[in-house]
Amino acid sequence: MVSSVAVAGASGRLGSLVCEVVESHPDFELVAKLTSKSGADEGAEADILVDVTSPEVSQEIVERALGRGQQVLIGTSGWSAERIAGLEQTMSQFADQGAIVVPNFSLGSVLGTALAQIAAPYFASIEVIEAHHPKKIDSPSGTAVRTAELMAEAREAANSEPLLAPFTEQRARGELVAGIPVHSLRLTGVVAKQEVRFGGPGEVLCLVHDTHSNDAYVAGIRAALEAVREARGVTVGLDSVLGIGRSE
């Protein structure tokens, strides 16, 4: 059975790629390319709404889609743990629907975050550096936020000692996310890059993921599209879609 898809944010970098993936997939039909000029009811006939817009409008778009009975795939950055908790409350009204939130569609990025969770309980210092192209509006990136939150959860589950993060009141020390400093770079020539640095007595561990082109996102978009058709409730992360284990 072919599922119809509307893409909100279709004119953006990720939105254009999502449209290409949908159009090339035999199980999906692209019925609407939505932009900031589109009316609120455009794309309402679609089975699935893919939201790859901006953090400012994403929540409204998602809630409207759920109210129309659509399945929702969220690729917009900025969905923090707090916002996801709100989405879970909203989804309690829609037992027969599902929403998947994917901070990053790259398999390498997902694996990098999983490895960061494994390492997090064993080091006293952790900092994240993320870099993206100059047109990325939000910072820190959704991937960096999610990575920091999951590392903090792993440390809490392991009863780790409090992190050492001195002088965080200084702006140059980055933004604290779940107690972990996150630094954002916006540079010409960069697609996406994330580095997590772990410091311990006498050693430093660096986990680096570097995206060189948008081709890195294609497989993840396909997997998330295929999963969202039967999704129920809220699913967070490409790791959950692919069955990559993480600490709870």
UniProtKB/TrEMBL annotation:
Residues 111-242 form the Dihydrodipicolinate reductase C-terminal domain. Keywords: Amino-acid biosynthesis, Cytoplasm, Diaminopimelate biosynthesis, Lysine biosynthesis, NAD, NADP, Oxidoreductase. Pathway: Amino-acid biosynthesis; L-lysine biosynthesis via DAP pathway; (S)-tetrahydrodipicolinate from L-aspartate: step 4/4. (S)-2,3,4,5-tetrahydrodipicolinate binds at residues 133, 142-143. GO terms for biological process: diaminopimelate biosynthetic process; lysine biosynthetic process via diaminopimelate. Its EC number is 1.17.1.8. It is an enzyme of class 1 (oxidoreductase). Its main location: cytoplasm. The keyword Transferase does not apply. NAD(+) binds at residues 9-14, 75-77, 102-105. The active site is at 132 (proton donor/acceptor), 136 (proton donor). It catalyses: (S)-2,3,4,5-tetrahydrodipicolinate + NADP(+) + H2O = (2S,4S)-4-hydroxy-2,3,4,5-tetrahydrodipicolinate + NADPH + H(+); (S)-2,3,4,5-tetrahydrodipicolinate + NAD(+) + H2O = (2S,4S)-4-hydroxy-2,3,4,5-tetrahydrodipicolinate + NADH + H(+). NADP(+) binds at residue 37. Pfam families: DapB_C (PF05173), DapB_N (PF01113). GO terms for molecular function: 4-hydroxy-tetrahydrodipicolinate reductase; NAD binding; NADP binding; oxidoreductase activity, acting on CH or CH2 groups, NAD or NADP as acceptor. Catalyzes the conversion of 4-hydroxy-tetrahydrodipicolinate (HTPA) to tetrahydrodipicolinate. HAMAP family: DapB. Belongs to the DapB family. This is 4-hydroxy-tetrahydrodipicolinate reductase.
